[in-house]
Amino acid sequence: GGPRRLLLVSNSTLHGGGYLGHCQQHIQSFLGEKVKRVLFVPYALHDRDAYARTAREKFESLGYGLDSIHESCDPVEAVRKSEAIFIGGGNTFRLLKALYDNSLIQEIRKRVLEDGIPYMGSSAGTNVATVSINTTNDMPIVYPPSLQALGLVPFNINPHYLDPDVKSTHMGETREERIRQYHEEPNTPPVLGLREGAMLLVEGDKATLQGVTGARLFLRGKKPTEHEPGTDFSFLLIDSNLQNL
Question: Where does it reside (predicted)?
Fold first, then answer.
């Protein structure tokens, strides 16, 4: 057992660097020396073999073995035996559908929330760690049975959060407007806009913003607020109905 431990990364690749390059020190510090092998979930991309090769190469370079869940004949058993779980990015709808199709939602929740194994997500893998995938940027290319996700934290995240470009003539909705529309619906939880290069470390009841960029926090009925790396976001873990305060 042990408290939940999550590393929720906005993006897998930062401009100018390689796969997970910008957060590799965070990964090593997060997984530590006890973890020897990581269970990788490549369901968000179509070519799972190629995705697993990329992830395996990176994690082996950091000193960890990597097993890809798609190579297992029993995905549920793979989760039950795992020491740590990493869910990579891609299309969030495709990822969540595969988690439901393989009966992994409750299994992953149990391993992370009850058994205390480390969970790392990047991009879509961060989306599915939250309450729901309602605030993803992806197109619904497939139809999961529900938009409810793993619920490892009681709020939502918007990875790859983009600030409006003041010089742009683009007339489409900004990310901020889309999140505001989400919050026009009743009982919607907070949304943390994680810019590329940012990540959230959750250890038990403590949540800390890490990385090189900041984040923007949206609470229902409130003006969004700006936050720098190092910000303590533990209050977001207390209650999913913060917007009613």
Answer: Cytoplasm
